[in-house]
Amino acid sequence: MKRRTKLNVAVCCVLLAVVSSFAAGQRYEIGIPDIAGYKTLKCDFHMHTVFSDGAVWPTVRVDEAWRDGLDAIAITDHIEYQPHKNDIPTNYKRSYEIARGKARDRNILLVKAAEITRDTPPGHYNALFLDTIDALDTKGQSKAEGQAAKDEEFLLAIKAANEQKAFVFWDHPNWQARNGGRVWFDIHTRLFKEKLVHGIEVVNDGTFYTDSFKWCLERNLPIFGNSDVHGPLDPPTVNHENHRTMTLVFAREKTLEALRDAIVNGRTAVWFEDKLIGRKEYLEEIFAASVEVKEAHSKYRNNAYFEVHNKSEITYQLQKISGGGPSTVVLPAQRTVVLRAPISEEGAVDIAYKVTNLLIGPAECLKFETTIDIGG
Ligand SMILES: [Zn+2]
Ligand SMILES: [Zn+2]
């Protein structure tokens, strides 16, 4: 009898340990809707750990991602910059290996990745979906000298990523901008022309590169927005008011294969501060899936009153283009507002707004037009 009690206590302790390790923390689900046929995966493809110049252990990145409501991350430690190497020996694949088990347990897709790191130009490049990160370390492989050796070794690293069919995107293009802010050089023309680089980070942490957004639209390249976090991340506040910058990927399902397919086919957008940045077709669908304009519930003195409900995480800011309704409207996240608009002589209520925080071009907002059903 005594023995059994002891055993029960032991079993309880083990169970408690197991339960507590899984119950630690809470996940915030981000209310950005799925769009026709695709899941909206919330992703951050740029972050660092102690294995390069970051200040946290790789598993912490997974815990943060889970807490923040992310679906996929890439740990992108620098190949060429390892300031902690006297304490933590260079081991390019180690941050991925350490984070992998935790990512599996937390249902986070972990992309094997690294950051190719050079002064500007050419700048920094993240390679996603790598097989062997070690192959990107090309230092000493050129027989040339000085700048020529640096240029050749950079290209060898980018090509080594491409040989593994990695997806390579240009990070924070304006970082270290030289020659009076010049960002685009001949090397960039070559990288895109030869399809060695396949996308651009249009937002890095708190900086939005409008030129980069324009280049992506012109060249039909996927856009990215990432945290590039180095230290520990603060938890988001209510309604994610201080959420990290992230990439939205419209994927058929939550798997690494579907994630890759979506990225390669350009199905991405960016959530940055209060803004969504992306191609018209995706932002239009997100807005439509977020906002319901109900039929008029009352009429008074030739005005119709109707409700507009926003079920998403994003507070939409509207500015009137034409038609009835107030000149500006705020549709707060997860709230309903009542609007009043005049009924026209034809007996209709037409409204036309631009959504000023949905950016479909560097200086272009999504337009939203509808006719309100005013009933009998
Ligand atoms: Zn960088
Ligand atoms: Zn970085």
- Please state the structural category: alpha+beta
Would you tell me the overall average pLDDT?
Answer: 92
As a whole number of angstroms, the C-alpha radius of gyration is 25 Å
Oligomer: single chain
* Cα end-to-end separation: 79 Å
| Ligand species | zinc ion
Determine and state the CATH class of the largest domain: Alpha Beta
Low-confidence stretches: 1-7, 12-23
The portion of residues forming beta strands comes to 25-35%
Q: SSE order in H/E notation?
A: HEHEHEEHEHEEHEEHEEHEEEEEEEE
Any guess at the CATH architecture of the largest domain? Alpha-Beta Barrel
Tell me what the structure shows.
- The chain is an alpha+beta fold and 376 residues long.
- It folds into two domains: 24-273, TIM Barrel (Alpha-Beta Barrel); 285-372, Immunoglobulin-like.
- The chain is built from eight helices and 19 strands.
- A hairpin with a 4-residue loop joins strand 15 (316-323) and strand 16.
- Helix 2 (58-67) runs parallel beside helix 3.
- The longest helix is centred in the first third of the chain and has 22 residues, at 2-23.
- The chain is elongated.
- It starts with a helix and ends with a strand.
- One zinc ion is lined by residues 115, 124, 171-172.
